[in-house]
Amino acid sequence: PQQYCYPSLFIYGHRASGKSHVVNVFMKDLELPHVTVSCVECVSVVLLFEKVLQSFFGGDAALLLPRSPSLSDFVRIYRQQSSQSPAKQTRYIVMEKAELLRDADVNLLPALLRLQELVKDNISVILLSEIVWDKFRPNTGCFEPLLLHFPDYSKGELQQILSTDQHPSYSAEFYSSYINMLLGVFYPVCRDLRELRHLAALNFSKFCEPVAAGKVKETDTHKLWKYIEPHLKKAMQTVYLGEVSSLQWEQMEEHETGALRGLSAHTHVELPYYSKFLLIAAYLASYNPARTDKRFFMKHHGKIRKTNFLKKNEKTSNHLLGPKPFPLDRLLAIFYSVVDSRVAPTASIFSQISSLVTLQLLTLISRDDQLDTPKYKCAVSLDFISVISRTVNFDIVKYLYDFL
Amino acid sequence: MATSSFSRGCFVFKPSAKKKKMTVGLERYFTHGSEGSESSEVRFKICLDLWNKVKMETEALQDELNRNILDSLLEFTRKCSSTRDHSDWASQMRASEIPTAALVLGVNVPDHDMTFQSLSDLLRHSVTPHVASLQAKECGALKHLMKRVLERLMGTVVAVGDEEEEELQQTDPELQKSVHCSLTALCDWYISKTKKSSCSAPGKKRSSSVVDGQHQQHPVVIIFKDLEAFNPRVLQDFILICSRYIQRLPLMFIFGIATSPSTIQHMLPNSVSSLLCIELFQSLSCTQHLTTVIDKLILTSSFPFKLSGKVMQVLVSIFLYHDFSVRNFIKGLQLALLEHFHSQPLSSLCCRKNEAQLNVQRLGPADLERIRQLPSFKRYLKEQEEQDNLMTDDAHLKDVCQKLIKDLHKYHKNYYPILRCLHCLTSSLPRYPLGKQIRELHLICLEKNVWESEDYQSAMKLLKMLAKGELISLLQTCAEVLQPVRSKKMKNALVQLEELLAKLKLLDAAAEVAPSVEENLTAPVRNLQKKTDLFQLQKMLLEMNESRRSKRMSPFEILRNEAVDFVDSLVKNHLSPPESKPLYEVCYYTSSATVRRHLNATPRTSIQAALSSPYSYIQNDSLKTEDGTVSNAAPDICIAYKLHLECGRLINLYDWLEAYSTVVSAAEGSNPDSDGFGKVDEVKHARFIRAVSELEFLGFIKATKKKTDHVARLTWGGC
Fold first, then answer.
1. A102-A104-A108 Cα angle (round to 5)
2. Distance of CA B199 to CAs A169, B153, B205, Å?
3. B260–A268 C-beta distance less than 8 A
4. What angle do CA B500, B506, B510 make, to 5 degrees?
5. How far apart are CA B379 and CA B382, in angstroms?
6. C-alpha span between B183 and B527 (Å, rounded)
7. Could you tell me where the beta strands, DSSP code E, fall in A97-169?
8. Which helix (H) or strand (E) holds B609?
9. Distance of alpha carbon A108 from alpha carbon A112, whole angstroms
10. Residues 4-63, chain A: which have Cβ within 8 Å of B?
């Protein structure tokens, strides 16, 4: 009847640049018929279809979908329904996190882009994504959507947005001066609105403290700055990394217990004795070239200097290149030569290897179903392994080719 | 089972829904093949009783050990569900975070099940009915994860849209039609649930939540049992989805972490982990757990069943070297218990004192003969005069046995308190001459006379150098250990100990006496200044040295020596190894090899043993050979294995076949000079190929492309 809307719109911009917010507010305020779907949630396409049909035509329409419906089923039912209740206005489908559509069925994305054509209805699909359209374009080609970019917020904009969620018991100016200080500290390292909001919420109570105690007036920004600055600096070390949860952070503020240990401070892992040696052997196998095993683990290896060993490509440190895969045989051979006592090749030694894999200290490189000579990589850091080897009195540095 | 398929492949047969009824009693298994079947029923009963007791004790122990951490977790969930309702500014700003408890449990994954079980029970009982626990292996993809969550929370069957679930859907089609696998469904369900409960029983609700002041929402708790094993991708997506619903659905996560909390950061990017509000909970280390288990189950006289030093050593080393799993330790204990009662006919005496006395009277002549054959009893006989009487008179033997059993019980009653005392005294000494843990000391004591060891001597020397304060506090802890023991000897010891303590404390009061001793010492020094002769001086100094050595014994030192000697005498009296006691075999399980074989299997060694000496498995006399050779009547695979040991890295298949057929021909008894000898016929060829492929299957050889008609050996050495 009237002019149809453009079939599809692609909106992109960084995280927390207001894409979904703007679209949602827009839809709500204008009371447009729309449905918002997050692509993460759509484990299967069924959920997507169901949700769309349900919100446009009511729950009964969704029940018409057959078991494991295909795209054409969806189109068929949509047409059928839309002919019964034709659209007075453009209907919108808003797809959040659209980058996940790339992993879905091949035909889903192109079909969504020209859904209007397929269902012959005034419908428009809005895709929201953090990455640019170029990364989406399927190689078979497709309908080009309208592109719209949401640029990052500037400092002033951030300040304005953050100032909106002010505390009810303090004045707006007070809060915005707080935000100003906060941005002064954090803006150089973090421009993510969500993170900043989180930080603002966390530290505000501290900021209010001198005011509540009556030491400083609300307007005396200079003094307030003096009070809050060291605190914010401390926050920068821990909270931004997600090291310490907000709850713990608040508790720490209450108790003033000095240094709080973040998540990454707890790296110590207690392991059974042989698991430690297996891990050490895996580390050695991952970071030493296989040719040098003879030199490290044979009793009478003679004197071989490092220069004789060096090949051209091995001049760079193995630690810079990262761990290399090694077969199970090599791991066991090294294990038996580093462990000081005689170990019977029992079943539990092998089960320890697989439990190290589940603990993500080792990584299985070959496929799961390959039983013949599986390959592994060691996934722990040098610091970690030195702590482990210190507990069993093993000087790992002496056995590492890089430190020869 | 058969298939109607024409194609070759792997077929899975799901077990049918009907369960086969297993009515064969446990007891039949026990009595079957056990030695001394006449007393097996009694033994079975004792064994079962003991095991039930052990199980109960360990469960109680587990609960108690976990109480702290579980309580704090419960507190955490309560707090989370209550702060959600608050409407102050700070919690509103934080409302989008999902409260998460990171529970660090240590690498002994098999033990975690029990902890999580009690955790979810507790949560269900006291905080919220909505608890779902997930394991990584059942959540390979996001939809499976969702399905599990929904199933466990709503208690219904959820459709994913997969063909594989077809069977399930046929069972109840009504349920699955309505519920789809998304959090929206869960949300709707939750809202309807809370509405219903608040409408239907408002009075009851109010009365229960009066303490909380207001109506509380039940949080939905999702437990990830093994975080490390989850696919990070799946977990991230799930958290992202959950965070979209957090406003409507009070979700809460509990992560079970085996390694260290930093895995969370490795698995989840900042964008995801910022959605969580993580709090850390650290559980007790597994070594501490083991120590308490040993303390409660082994170092106590209330369990008549004991482990010998070697068995104990095996169990502890499996724990320390291999798995860190307390559950496996208890499994080992169970195995030892079962083996003991199964294989030792006299174990009917291994029970409480009164029962044991009764059981002695019930012993049959065969059992009495067994008693006479016990090494420890023979040793006892040698020390006795009226041997022949014991050897013949059954009634007298029973009386003596009753006495001996009584002695054994007394020995145990005294052994453990003294062991603890000694541990108290020595565990804080520098360099731990007798071990840091009480189990180490226990092992030493089980093996030999502890007072004869060098470590013990040095420990005693160190004790004689203790300062007064330390000594008093150590002796006091000893007294506390001895306090609850109800035995005459221990009571005596306690009295003596307390006397010593009183004397030591009195010393403080008598401190004024000390200066007079000092004066005695200073007098010769004054004399010294008068003498100028060198010889005189030397003599004088020597004398002083002598006198100092003898006189420097202050009253405290005398008392200290007295105390140490007292401890020494206690040790000598009560800590002798159990082997020295007659009838110790009744209570002590000694076969460490059995335990090791069962718990720490060596598949490769057994395969090699089976191949190189088939007699040990197939007890056929024709297979019996001297060391290192294989009879030519052995199974084909053994012959092939033996022959392949003689080869190098690459094996020529044809040569191998020739050698094989020669050996087999000899076994068939054909004449070595005849024409057909060693000729390869079809049957031999086929047998050889089968043997080779079996060896390949076992991993001794594999096909190689380096040389035609060759296979590569995968093991070294041989012959």
1. 90
2. 36, 21, 9
3. yes
4. 135
5. 5
6. 99
7. 123-129, 146-150
8. helix B603-612
9. 6
10. 15, 38, 40-41, 43-44, 46-47, 50-51
Interface probe, candidates A38, A39, A40, chain B, greatest B C-beta count within 10 A: A40
Tell me how close the Cα of A172 comes to any Cα of chain B, in angstroms.
14
**Cβ contacts of A217 within 8 Å, gap of 6 or more:** A211
Q: How big is the A-B interface in CB pairs under 8 Å?
A: 150
- Residue B381's pLDDT is 84
Mutate to test the interface with A, among B237, B259, B284 (most CBs of A within 10 A): B259
pLDDT in tens, B522-557: 445 555 555 567 777 777 777 777 666 665 667 788
User: Hey, which bits of A231-383 come out as E strands?
Assistant: 326-327, 362-364, 375-378
pLDDT in tens, B591-617: 888 898 888 888 888 888 888 888 888
d(CA B611, CA B698): 11
Long-range contacts of A388-397 (CB under 8 A, 24+ apart): A388/A269, A388/A271, A388/A276, A388/A279, A388/A280, A389/A276, A389/A280, A391/A276, A392/A273, A392/A276, A392/A277, A392/A280, A394/A277, A394/A280, A394/A338, A396/A280, A396/A283, A396/A284
Q: If you search the block for the tokens 């190894």, which residue do you land on?
A: B577
- Measured in angstroms, the CA of A51 and the nearest CA of chain B are apart by 10
Question: B99, A68: Cβ pair inside 8 Å?
Answer: no
Do B471 and B479 meet the contact criterion of CB atoms below 8 Å apart? Answer: no
* DSSP H helical ranges for B384-484: 387-392, 394-426, 438-447, 454-463, 468-482
Distance in angstroms (rounded) separating the CA atoms of residues B360 and B506: 51
Calculated CA dihedral for residues B293, B295, B301, B305, nearest 10 degrees: 40
What type of residue sits at position B89? Answer: W
Closest CA in chain B for residue A67: B161
Provide the token pair at B142.
Answer: 């996001």
Structure tokens at B609: 């043993």
Cβ(A187)–Cβ(A195) under 8 Å?
Answer: no
Nearest CA-CA partner of A97 in A37, A52, A35? A37
Per-residue confidence (pLDDT) for residue B688, from 0 to 100: 92
Q: Considering only CB atoms, which chain B residues are within 8 Å of A44?
A: 143, 160-161
